[in-house]
Amino acid sequence: MGSIPEQKHNTYTDYAAWDDGKRYELIDGVAYMLAGPNRTHQLISGELFYQLKNFLRNKKYEVYSAPFDVMLNAKGDDDDTVVQPDITVVCDKSKLEEKGCNGAPDFIVEILSDASVRHDKIIKFNKYMRAGVREYWIVDPAAKMVYVNILSGGDYKVHDYSESDSIPVYVLEGCTINLSEIFSGI
After folding, report:
1. If we measure between CA atoms, which residue out of 64, 59, 61 comes closest to residue 83?
2. Residue 87 CB contacts under 8 Å (≥ 6 apart), including other chains
3. Which of 107, 164, 46 is nearest to 54 (CA)?
4. Is residue 96 in a domain?
5. Which of 75, 93, 119, 126 is the most buried (most CB within 10 A)?
6. By residue range, what is the domain housing residue 143?
7. Residue 46 contacts by C-beta under 8 Å, 6 or more apart in sequence?
């Protein structure tokens, strides 16, 4: 049985051995326990996944919902940054392994909770930008807003959308997400 070392720089190998029934992410070798999603989070995640999955049906790209491991630095078992985005879209299937995605996906969605605001808006924002995630959405259920970050010249350019907007998914040509459907149940 694995346990989480408190003062050790961890890698995917360590992470994969933990079996305490909790979900974690690794950021630069440090383990962060993930809180369970609430009902609102699940409604938003489910509707977003549904819209993306329907768009991608019979296309070459793949969409995954959490828990799905992303070894962000493309170092496989030696990677010290392993995240579990709420939704992940991978356009380059060569990055996919049975255990998850080895390298930066093309599109990631994170849904904010009270416990995840700093983690998602600062820590993951910077990690995703540096790793080359081309499009990163931060969904704020309380404000009924989506902050779309598009990678351009090594930095994210931010676009804000409210609950009545439709958002084009920049990495998926022809895909548009209707936010009124995303936020309708909350």
Report:
1. 64
2. 45, 48, 49, 52, 63, 64, 65, 66, 107, 108, 109
3. 46
4. yes
5. 119
6. 12-182
7. none
Q: What is the CATH number of the domain that holds 177?
A: 3.90.1570.10
Task: List pLDDT tens digits, range 149-182.
Answer: 999 999 999 999 999 999 999 999 999 999 999 9
Answer yes or no: is 162 within a domain. yes
Q: How far apart are CA 105 and CA 107, in angstroms?
A: 6
The Cα–Cα gap between 67 and 158 comes to: 26
Convert the pLDDT of each residue in 76-96 to its tens digit.
999 999 999 999 999 999 999
* Any domain includes 3: no
Q: Can you list the pairs that 29-34 forms with residues at least 24 positions away whose Cβ atoms lie under 8 Å?
A: 29/80, 29/81, 31/4, 32/119, 34/84
Q: Count up the domains in the chain and report the number.
A: 1
Asked if residue 6 is part of any domain, the answer here is no
User: Which residue type does 150 have?
Assistant: I
DSSP string, 98-155: TTEEES--SEEEEE--TTTHHIIIIIHHHHHHHHT-SEEEEEETTTTEEEEEEEETTE
Tell me which residue of 138, 134, 137, 170 sits closest to 152, measured CA to CA.
134
